[in-house]
Amino acid sequence: METLKTMTYEATGRIARITLNRPERGNGITLDLPRELVDCVERADLQRKFSAQFLTVSHVTRRKAMPFNNVRQR
Q1: At a CB cut-off of 8 Å and minimum separation 6, what does 5 contact?
Q2: Which of 52, 65, 63, 56 is nearest to 21 (CA)?
Q3: Which of 9, 15, 27, 43 is the most buried (most CB within 10 A)?
């Protein structure tokens, strides 16, 4: 797996943890994020030793989240 730009991947025992790691940008979705997320999940699946996979964020922001259905199409 290449160097991750938007997240970290950590395997401890039977748990794989994927952490979004862009707190300065509110852990927003970028073009790299979906590809990296798929790579991390596939990596965990291929190892077949994990009983759990977790997706977490590195920092909780105080920004108010906006539901996707309220976002205007451009």
Answers
A1: 30, 32, 36
A2: 56
A3: 27
